[in-house]
Design a protein that fits this description.
This protein has five helices and no strands. The protein is mainly alpha-helical and 132 residues long.
């Protein structure tokens, strides 16, 4: 991967980390906005998967569908396939928690689970990309 691509990948990883910081801050609040936590978990995972695509010279789809993005990167990082079912659920948080007409109200356990999945995926992606 050339320096320009590495820099772009780092930018995507920083944005994903910003989503993760948002989650950590919200989880430490007295009142946890679980919808916000779930939304940022979806956003972080989306950015991580898009970073993998960019790092491997692939175009990134204008999609928020985590399962589709997973299928686009699974040949590069096959261990991510283990998150297939969880990503199907978390993918819904990209839209359903943002608007009242699609509103879903995840509980604290669901929010913590989404965060945990995002953390695990981040560790795998960063390890595989070898970006410092």
């Amino acid at each position: 991967m050339d320096d320009v691509t590495s820099d772009i990948v780092r930018q995507w990883l920083r944005k994903a980390d910003s989503d993760m910081l948002n989650i950590r801050n919200n989880l430490s609040a007295t009142e946890v906005p679980t919808d916000t936590v779930c939304f940022h978990a979806q956003q972080s995972i989306e950015k991580l998967l898009k970073a993998v695509l960019i790092a491997n010279g692939r175009n990134i789809a204008k999609s928020h569908d985590l399962v589709k993005l997973l299928m686009d990167v699974v040949d590069v990082i096959p261990e991510l396939l283990a998150f297939d079912e969880q990503l199907e659920e978390i993918s819904e948080y990209g839209v359903s928690v943002r608007y009242p007409d699609y509103y879903c109200d995840p509980d604290l356990e669901e929010a913590k689970n989404a965060f945990e999945v995002a953390e695990k995926i981040r560790l795998i992606v960063v390890d595989k990309l070898h970006i410092t």
